[in-house]
Amino acid sequence: MTPQDAIGVDSLFSIKGKTALVTGGSRGIGLMIARGYLEAGAKVYISSRKREVCDETARQLSAIGPCISIPSDLSTVAGCNHLASEIAKQEDKLHILVNNAGAAWGAPIGQYPEAGWDKVMDTNLKGIFFLTQACLPLLEKAAVAGDPARVINIGSIDGLAVSDLENYAYGPSKAAVHHLTRNLAVHIGRRNITCNAVAPGPFESMMTKDVLEHFKQGLEKTCPLKRIGEPGDMAGVAIYLASRAAAYVNGVTIAVDGGICIS
Q1: Domain that holds residue 185
Q2: Where are the alpha helices (DSSP H) in 40-147?
Q3: 168 is catalytic
């Protein structure tokens, strides 16, 4: 490369014309990512368990760009296969898969139920693997030289450090997501599909509603940047990982937390 060689910054960070699937895309972090992708010119499919909520969110987002709702329960293999097959009926390739759908369950250690443990692990971990598996044919068709297809897994800083809250399955499930990301990065990387993870800190969402009601000021004091995350923070990293700018980034977990996990 010479000083005269143009990098093309505008195209480097562009995802215009790409097709993305964002699970858990009807609210919270998934909604932030879906909206960001639409504003950046992508076509977006969103999925969540609740049909009415998913359909209404897609209707509202369609004012920005093409957004299609495909409700599905991703805690089951059948639900993962259903979602992938429905995408395949409408698209011959999928450039971006964002595995964001998640669940949490809090209870004292002596009362923590098996049902809660299984729900969290099935949704947060099993669902990621089996949906990625089901979407591989579509992802492979989207991959081109110099611009791989992308899998982006949403982990958590609770998978990087131990939370003060008694969410016993949540942190371990997210730590497993981070390691599954590395595992997938090696194996599907050979198919020209990258796999990376994002570990969010506190953002406004249904999952964090109770925590922020009671601990928001404390979290802001703990954060070196003195605030919680905003929609643009999440959209920005998701767009970067989906763009050609991140074509050589594979197997990493990016904490988006203002420095909380290292402070």
Answers
A1: 9-255
A2: 51-61, 77-90, 114-121, 127-142
A3: no
